[in-house]
Design brief:
The structure holds 2 protein chains of 2 kinds.
Chain A lengths: L1 H17 L34 E10 L7 H25 L2 E9 L2 E15 L2 E9 L2 E10 L1 H5 L1
Antiparallel strand pairs in A: 1-5, 2-3, 4-5
Chain B lengths: L3 H21 L1 E12 L2 E11 L7 E9 L6 H7 L1 H11 L1 E10 L2 E19 L3 E7 L1
Antiparallel strand pairs in B: 1-2, 1-5, 3-6, 4-5, 5-6
Classes of the chains: A alpha+beta, B alpha+beta.
Chain lengths: 152, 134
């Protein structure tokens, strides 16, 4: 009896050492970095394989001052709002290139200008809602980003 | 939710429509460009050209537009421009945007381009069916 108890104790100790009964597996898992940055910090990916990232923007557009009819004004304002919406989507997803220029003469600021630009190809954006009030058209747009959309 | 058997007629009708478009439809190249300045459209250009060679491989992404009898594709697209732009833009568009801020004035110039692509166009009595090639 004592021999069997001692044998069981010995087996359980060796099993614990081998990690068979270890339950803390998550402590060994490490977050996969997508970009370490200059400071070496680990950054988790925003878009993950198992879920979808939905981006919603509101584009604004104005009709030209001279139009043939209110319907044409609405159509043109909506088109301008769509372009603005696509720009906002491109800025959110791809980022904006910013360029600043200051001109200083005799230690005084003469001119200051900032230019922003974005260029992108957009696929799969949808118009969710359109409102037209007092000459201003607002278009609510949505794009869903996922691995399946990126890869196809 | 449809069952598997319930989907069959839908799949068959879609395949029949696509095969009809491939064999009986005319092919057109359609492109579009819109330029806006300070959130106002300043230039809009639609280019429609009949394809000299047939396009192949059509997706199941179909648009049906109303058509007055005898109207050309250009006329139909001019009347239903917004619908067509939304349809084509959902597939792919290119955007270029530039904004300049200086001395408390902001100027923005944006160009939206629908790349010229081949479309199968089937003319019916009161409608036009358009399908984008892959």
């Amino acid at each position: 009896m004592r021999l069997s108890a001692a044998l069981a104790l010995l087996l359980s100790v060796s099993a614990l050492q081998a990690g068979i009964f270890s339950t803390d597996e998550s402590s060994d898992q490490k977050v996969k970095c997508v970009y370490s940055g200059t400071d070496g910090n680990c950054v988790e990916p925003i878009l993950k394989a198992e879920n979808e990232l939905v981006i919603t923007v509101t584009g604004q557009g104005v009709a030209p001052s001279v139009t043939a009819s209110p319907a044409q004004a609405y159509a043109l304002a909506k088109r301008a709002a769509m372009v603005d919406g696509y720009r906002l989507i491109a800025e959110r997803v791809k980022g904006v290139q910013v360029e600043g220029q200051d001109t200083i003469k005799n230690m005084m600021l003469q001119q200051s200008s900032t230019k922003t630009s974005v260029e992108a190809i957009v696929r799969g954006a949808n118009i969710m809602n359109t409102t037209f009030k007092e000459g201003l058209c607002e278009v609510e747009m949505e794009i869903a980003l996922s691995y399946s959309r990126v890869l196809h | 939710m449809r069952s598997r058997n319930g989907n069959r007629p839908f799949v068959f009708s879609s395949l029949a429509l696509i095969s009809t478009l491939i064999h009986a439809a005319d092919n057109y190249y359609i492109g579009y460009r819109l330029t806006t300045k300070n959130a106002q459209p300043i230039e809009e250009q639609f280019t429609v050209s009949k394809a000299m060679q047939p396009c192949t491989e059509y997706g199941n992404f179909i648009l049906t537009l109303p058509r007055l009898s005898g109207a050309t594709l250009e006329t139909v697209l001019n009347l239903e421009r917004s619908t067509f732009i939304e349809y084509a833009a959902e597939h792919e568009l290119r955007l270029k945007s530039n904004e300049t801020l200086s001395s408390a004035t902001i100027q923005s110039l944006q160009t939206l381009t629908l790349p010229t692509r081949c479309y199968a166009v089937e003319f019916n009595d009161h409608s036009v069916t358009i399908s984008l090639s892959k």
